[in-house]
Amino acid sequence: MQVFLLPFRAVILLCKSHCLSSSKLQSSEKCKQNQGKMNQTKLGEANIFSQLIFSWINSLLRLGYAKPLVLEDIPTLLSEDEAQSAYKTFSSKWDYLRRDGKSNDQRNLLLEALFRVHWKETIFAGFCALLRTFAVVVSPIFLYAFVQYSGNERRDRLEGLLLVGCLVIVKFIESFSQRHWFFNSRRSGMRMRSAIIMAIYQKQLKLSGLARRRHSTGNIVNYIAIDAYRMTESLYWFHLGWSLLVQLGLAIGVLFKVVGISAFPGLAFVLIIGFVNIPFARTYNKCQSLYKVAQDERLRATSEVLNNMKIIKLQSWEQKFKDVIDLLRENEHKFLAKSQLKRSSASVLYWISPTIVSAVVLLGCLLMKSAPLNAATIFTVLATLRSMAEPMRWIPEAASMVIQVKISLHHLNTFLLDDEISKEESKKSSNSFEQSSALCVEIQGGNFSWEPEESAHVPALRDINLEVKRGQKIAVCGQVGAGKSTLLCAILGEVYRLSGSVSVNGTIAYVSQAPWIQSGTIRDNILFGKPMEQTKYEMVAKACALDKDINGFSHGDLTEIGERGLNLSGGQKQRIQLARAVYYDADIYLLDDPFSAVDAETAAILFSDCVMAALRDKPVVLVTHQVEFLTEADRILVIEGGQITQSGSYAELLSTPGTTFEQLVNAHKKAVSELVTSDTGNMDETRRIHENQLELPGESCSEREGSEKEISVEGFPNIQLTKEEERETGDVGWKPILDYFYVSKGSHLYILTILSYFAFSALQATASYWLALAMRFSKVNSAVLVGVYAGISTFSIPFVYSRGLFATLLGLKASKAFFSGINNSIFKAPMLFFDSTPVGRIFARLSSDMNTVDIDLPPSINISTAATIDALMTIAIMASVTWPVLIVAIPTVIIAKYVQGYYLSSAREFMRMNGTTKAPILNNVSETSQGVVSIRAFNMMEMFFANYLKLVDTDARLFFHSNAAMEWLVLRIETLQNLVILTAALLIVLLPGKHLPGFVGLSLSYALTLSTTQVIMTRMHCNLSNEIVSVERIKQFMHIPPEPPAIIEDMRPPASWPFEGRIELENLKVRYRPNSPLILKGITCTFKEGTRVGVVGRTGSGKTTLISALFRLVEPESGRILIDGLDICCIGLKDLRTKLSIIPQEPTLFRGSIRMNLDPLGIYPDNEIWEALEKCQLKAIVSSLPKLLDSSVSDEGENWSVGQRQLFCLGRVLLKRNRILVLDEATASIDSATDAILQKTIREEFPGCTVITIAHRIPTITDSDMVMVLSYGELVEYDVPLKLMETNSAFSKLVAEYSSKYRRNSKQS
């Protein structure tokens, strides 16, 4: 007995070597902390033996067994595995192929480049796969030899031991070659993935405007989340496909060797199965392609919805957009169901083929007499056909995966070959300009278009001639859509230059019209990769009027900004963006309407302290609608219809009557004329206001500082808005699996799956046992033997079909339930959830995690269940022949379970951390896509590229060690199972007495499949443990505390509510979170019905929060808001929001048509839409488009100017005609003349309505019936404008500042 236990003891010692004492572990952790840096992976210093058995990962697994791993515990990658190395090698091959290729080349250059880079690793992995294939095919020959040996009357024990030795060598070759095939294939796949992700990111930084419209942000995120990540497994599936074909061919050769021509009927049946599968495969692949397209469309729409959730909630469009997503998901799920059911049906052929083919072959032997029907023949045939079963089952799967990889390569190749911004668009000098060169920007005869020359119908800019000299301040003005922003883009090289030349001499800083803010801290956004210089930093913060805002934040400038600056006001975002530009200290400044989002007093500070003082020696091109600043400009350009129609100083332009410039100035003069007459003219007071940075009245410097201190104290808990991503730690046991069954309500389907497969496996074992048993009785003739075997095998077919069907139905049911749960939860989540949760984090759940639940989990559950039953059945059959094998088998199973648990302690954390490291990759690429123009303008592509490399490497190092740990485990499990096979073979050779050849054949035919079965079981159990993490992650977002219900049946307001539009605020207090400071601090006032109320206050004073409270984006902490006497907190959100209209501060358009954007619910006829377009000054431009109302709107409305987007938003409210209208900086991005027309339109179209206007243009406020002044969340003043202007009020000081500007303009003109 001790002889049998010797190898068993050796394995125990091997396992013990991985479990050092915890005291050593703790001391190693302390050393690690003292070092203060991560170690590189141990693979680089491992010897050949350590690499062979994966022992180099022992220390990490030991640490993971002792405590839950965190990201800092994971070693860094070797340099050759890092993204930078992978991308550099790939990039050189890619660039060579692009230069070498022809324009009409139909080759997939991406595939060719990848092959040229990775051909050595591919050949090595292929050699390992081939070695493993030979080892698998040789195994049935050993079975034949063993059965022949056991049937000999006189057995030579030495011969038997030699057979055992050879069998063990073959099994170890199979094991080691397969492990290194899998590991190296995935390692190469990881390098390919990293290189492609970086290539996508780099391409994104170079995409032209036209290409950006073709590839939306959602598309680019999808290229990484789905297509690039698919490359990880591509080499594995490629090698699996061809090696299984070789294995099938060799197995057929063995079959011919054993049974001769009797193999032909079996081979014919195999070919029939193959031909029958062709239509299945075609249908399956078609469904897969359609599923992929449907998934892309759903993810694109999801990305758009997540990025624009605020406007969706304000307009109460949740149900509409949820229905759109549900419809897209339904279409996606339809193709998923079709493909999975086809796959399930096709798999039946491969599960039953070994038994049916074996029956046909044995029948051939019976009829053709080409081989005797003895135990050696029968069980060698069975073992050979079992080795054929693996190819029969997995070749279609491999083919399917290779097709999916091909589709992904096509997507990626198309993207990487798309149009880039031309390096010749502008001849920029990256160095600072020479002192001798006074000319900074020069455009000569420039014609520019957003379309390339061959498809450009009308240039966006025509005959542009421009010179900007050092220190010059150039102002650019014009009406909405005239081409002002396009001129800046022409200087930046963002548009196609059809003719002429552009020369830029020096570095550029650019401030975009729509603020682009990065996730991170305020400091990160201002520094923008530059080193911290405290004095300069403070000067910039003050010049950009940010110092007091920074002091007001509980974390100062280390306050984390939510995604896209969601926790900042529009003015704060614009000033941070301006501070970024000033701190950058560029040679040339391009400012695109930077004052539109800030109030008048702040705009005055920014213009004087920032543009005129901080940038006094810099050339500045300023696009602006604020006419009051034009007098300070050295030169003014007036753009009309894409041409510079006027150019000169303020006085020169005014001297020419009847021009566009005169119209703009006259509109401005008319607007401020009332202010001038009402102004007290107290210039000393105005001067004092300016010196004190426009402090509000009744609030001294010390009082304001006290207010800021109060805010800091209230924010004492120091919790940032963006929460760290949650993840489970440790072993959560069966909970996720039980959650999977509970949510899907599919427990009964799983039970039926188990019963079906158990019946199938039992019948298969019975058929094999019958063959062994029949060998004992000479009375059983060959016809009966084959007939009974065929009958039992045929009877098992319905069970294997039902098993596949039940498992597929379970997966589809779970897929539908989980998506429905998370989608419902997200649409019902409050706005705070979206403010504090990065979109990439939500998107990861709806893309990669959902893909895991759709595609990966069902087969993992199915196959792990089947492999477990097969393993138990195999051990039972082996024990029935040689029961002493249980002495080794049972402890082996126990040790295997322990080793698996040891591995899973680390593997679970790998998978959980991987979920949190993938989201930043997607989030960052989305953020970069939105700010790519700014990144290019600042020439910061290299910095962003380097930061992205770190994110990719962090994700890759988790995958790398997870992959290595899996192979570590499987190698040890295989070693244990090889011990069981060795024991069974030794027992046959060493135990006294004669063993019946039939039972020897039966035992060994099952024993040879044990290691494969055990490996599949272990791998699938581990995959299941890893993939079930996606269930955990999705379930986290299925239980987001919802916002109040959309409709409360018992509290529904009348259909005609609000009757009058009276709004009463009663001691209104609002904070965004329980531990955050109060934003509104007890506001009490009444907006009378039918009045126009202007709301003013310094940026960040709480104006937008007041609107959020009115729409219940945030619930009041205390106090009430009454509309016509009805407490809005008592009714449903939909009933409230549909009765209010808003034009938001940041205009939002959706991808689709003009009609869809104006009327998403489809309730208005075309004539009313055209009427609304006419009133908001858009009818002329829409009428000129070929498709009229069906003309396209690209992602986020990028093919329309910001001003035009705001006009579209005005069109929406003109259609709704509600009694309460909110204008939140509604006309900030349009010129004064258009603003005046629109204000008149609003007055005419909304008579008797309550209009609440937040505006930074004082004239927009002065014709209001009432004015509300807010300061730091408190109501400072609320009265009639004329009354406020007659007193020493905050409002009068705002007017004084504004009118003093006007006076200066008048004097200079």
Automatic annotation (TrEMBL):
Q: For this protein, what reaction is catalysed?
A: ATP + H2O + xenobioticSide 1 = ADP + phosphate + xenobioticSide 2
- Record's keyword terms, sorted: ATP-binding, Membrane, Nucleotide-binding, Signal, Translocase, Transmembrane, Transmembrane helix, Transport
How the protein sits in the membrane?
A: Multi-pass membrane protein
Query: Recorded E.C. number(s)?
Result: 7.6.2.2
Where is this gene product found? Answer: Membrane
- According to the UniProt entry, where is the signal peptide? 1-22
Q: Which Pfam families match?
A: ABC_membrane (PF00664), ABC_tran (PF00005)
Principal EC category? translocase
Highest taxon, organism lineage: Eukaryota
Question: Which residues span the membrane?
Answer: 123-147, 235-256, 262-281, 348-369, 749-771, 783-801, 881-904, 976-993
Which residues are in the ABC transporter domain? Answer: 443-666, 1063-1297
**Domain (ABC transmembrane type-1): residue spans on this chain:** 123-404, 751-1012
The question of whether Signal is a record keyword is answered with yes
- Gene3D superfamilies named among the record's database cross-references: ABC transporter type 1, transmembrane domain, P-loop containing nucleotide triphosphate hydrolases
- Looking at the keywords, is Transcription present? no
Name the PANTHER family on file.
Answer: ABC TRANSPORTER C FAMILY MEMBER 8, ATP-BINDING CASSETTE SUB-FAMILY C
- Family label: Belongs to the ABC transporter superfamily. ABCC family. Conjugate transporter (TC 3.A.1.208) subfamily.
Q: What is this protein called?
A: ABC-type xenobiotic transporter
> Origin organism of this chain?
Xanthoceras sorbifolium
